[in-house]
Amino acid sequence: MGRLIPEPPRPPAPTRAEGACLGSRLQAADRLGRANPARGDRTCVALRSAQALAESAIALRDALTRMHRNGESDVHSATLARALRALDGERRTNRPTLPPLSGPEGI
Prior knowledge:
107 residues; 4 helices; 58% helix
């Protein structure tokens, strides 16, 4: 009978503070995306999103402060990137960028 190959160790699960950091970062990206004049068509929506962006920045700061106070000095970027992808982070963080060029004039 063949030998079983041991599974590699699972990456650590995000801590509560890391989860709050990820959530507030994605919330900030969502709000910045809604305020993006290149992707929206309503100034009212963009204005409300821009006003709420400050709340997301404060939440992100607070989550990072908790991580620092908890002694979480190392960022497990591979684990956090995997979590961001699972939370649809690629699409959500793409919204604040410029949309792709659609025609020969670049419009």
